[in-house]
Every structure is written in structure tokens, then in C-alpha cells.
Amino acid sequence: MSIGKNIKTFRKEKKLTQVELAKKANMSRSYLADVEGDRYNPSLDTLSDIAEALGVSTADLLHGRESFGKFIRLEREMAGLSLEEVCRRTGINETQLSRIENEDTTSHYFDVKTMKKLAEVLNVSYVQLYEATGALIDLTEQEKKEFFESLYKEDYINEQVLFTLNLFDFTDGKNKELLAEFINTLSELIVKSKKKFTFSINLEKPENYQQLKNNLIDHNDIDFKSSVIEALSNLALQHKITEKINPLPFKTEREFIHDAKIDLADKDLVKKYPTISVDGRPLSEKELRKIIGLIRMDRELEEE
């Protein structure tokens, strides 16, 4: 697009009138209108004033914002990935992604799950990927913040689901009693919540247990998943299943902590209670910090 059209696009994104932008950039509205209409070529100083008023760079005004397709292609190439590899790892249709990269279509929105996979495969943040789509243009900064916090919170819950389910192992077929309690606990939660959720009771087969994990991760009700975490964690405690320690991945945990303002590294609390024991074993500093984080997570969910 031309410089004038780029300025107009950014102005509309910022929800500014020509009068408002002209005032912020210290110029007349009529002059700005002529610039947007490509009737005048602004000087670099004028471009700099307009860019500052819009909160963008001069390069953005000169070249326009990078399209979603171009963003994906550049990040994919920087990561050394082929189009086929990205599609295989994300489940995106190859023809669809190719058309997006070549800007042959305006339909380039994926569901949240696919966007998460794409961000992970390209090794970019959610924020970068969603901003590149242009889908957040009409949102206020507060609405953007709430949107991304909800994504990070869902990630955190899903990590807890996997951590909890990984405590149990029914593949050896020995602990029939625990398996029965596990199935009953989960079934009661489903009935109580009135959620549509099914799973195979033959959880001794690894593929069925993996499918249960996948179905829970894909479920879109955070409250239901939180109930599953709590109930199955209690079941694990009752059966003294404490040997398997699998802390949350640092990257996801740090992302969630940063955006949801949860501080797991509360050294004062850790130092104040260094002698807490579970099953006769003192909790490590890492375990104490995790407990502190889970408590704060529960409080945040209760406040909503």
C-alpha cells in the first residue's frame, strides 16, 4: 500500500479521527487528509511526527505492517522448517497454509488450539502470532490483556491435568481396586457437572489412557478440569502415590506467572516454613514454591 493508505490504516486501528491525529501530530487536518489521499508526499520529519502520534515506527508507515502470511513464512524459514513440516506438526491443511503465506486468501484465522500449536512450532509467542493476524485491532489494551491471560491460564490448567494423570499407571493390570476408584471418581464428576464427556473404562490399555488425557486437554471447561485435578489428586494422596514428581515446564509456568501476576518464587514464605513434611519427607524448596503457586491459582479462579 501507499504511505497515505498506511497512515489511514494505522489511524483507523487506533480509532482516531483525522482531526485527532492532526492535533497529536501538530499539523492541519486538511494537510493530513491530503497526505492520506496521496496528494502530498510528506517529508521524513512529518512522517516521524505522524509515526510518533500513532505509536508506530516510520518504517511501518513507509512499508506497512507485515501481513499474517508473510509473518508465518518468514518465521517458518528462519526456523528452517518446510511448509509440509509445519502442516504435519500443526494439523493445518497444506493448501490452506500455502494460500495464507502467498496472501491468496483473506480467510486466515485458526481456532485457539491450532494457533497455540502454530506458535509453538514456529517458536514465537501467542502475542506475536495473534497480533500478526490483525484480529486484535479493535480490542482495547485491557481486553487484549484479559484475552491473553485466559490463554495462559488454560495452558496452566492443562499442564496440571497432565501432571495429575501422569501420577497413575494402570498398564501392568495389577491395581484393579485403584483403577475402579479412578473410574468411579471421574464418572461421578462427569455426572455432577452434567458435562458431555466420555472415556473408555479399559484404561489398562495405554492408547485408551492417552485418549483420556487428550480428551481432557481438549475440553473447554476450566472449572470441570479443575475439579478433575482436585479429585484425582486427592485419590493419589489416599493411595500414597507421591514418588512421581514432574514439575511444570519452566517456559509455560513463567509465561503464566508473568501475565497472571503469580509469583512462585516467594522466598520469604519458603524460608518461613522450611519444615513442612508429607509422608515423612520434608518438602523441597521447589515443592513449597509450587504449593504457593497452586494456592494463588485457586484464589484467582475463585475470584472470577
UniProtKB/TrEMBL annotation:
Has UniProt tagged this entry with the keyword Amino-acid biosynthesis?
Answer: no
User: Mind telling me which InterPro entries this protein's record contains?
Assistant: Cro/C1-type_HTH, Lambda_DNA-bd_dom_sf, TransReg_Diox_bact_type
Entries under SMART domains matching the protein: HTH_XRE (SM00530)
Record-linked SUPFAM superfamilies: lambda repressor-like DNA-binding domains
Q: Which UniProt keywords apply?
A: DNA-binding
Query: Which residues are in the HTH cro/C1-type domain?
Result: 7-61, 72-129
Query: One GO molecular function term?
Result: DNA-binding transcription factor activity
Q: Which GO terms describe its cellular component?
A: cytosol
Protein name, per record? Helix-turn-helix transcriptional regulator
| Organism field | Paenibacillus faecis
